[in-house]
């Protein structure tokens, strides 16, 4: 990871400004992590405005997969990093649970997602996918399986 001095230069900031706001590399990484998590969670509403809930959920999961992939590198830098792929705790868990909850609720109201889905189970399953997937392609297939399992059953044809 680049030094704080290099990051300050790239951002067009004085190194003193960066150190005043982020006295350690970990503080800077944590701030970036929070900002990116907020951006990830903020994508829910626009996705729901543009797509049916199942599609919005699946697209949000792709954004989340990208977020987690970047965090693998950041976790090496963070002194107090939680293992990447584990269920986050505290503010991170609350934010992600709220984001997933909004998507699930919209799908339940639209009749496209099962009403018995527990948001916490989906968040934990996502963590498992991101922890065990060998690459983004495999993660994508696993996310497809997850979304298919969350869908309401198609109507049965009359016999």
From TrEMBL:
InterPro entries: Homeodomain-like_sf (IPR009057), HTH-type_TetR-like_transc_reg (IPR050109), HTH_TetR (IPR001647), Tet_transcr_reg_TetR-rel_C_sf (IPR036271), TetR_SbtR-like_C (IPR049445). Residues 3-22 bind DNA. Keywords: DNA-binding, Transcription, Transcription regulation. The keyword Transport does not apply. It holds the Pfam family TetR_N. One of its GO terms (molecular function) is DNA-binding transcription factor activity. Residues 1-40 form the HTH tetR-type domain. PANTHER family: HTH-TYPE TRANSCRIPTIONAL REGULATOR BETI, HTH-TYPE TRANSCRIPTIONAL REGULATOR RUTR. This is TetR family transcriptional regulator.
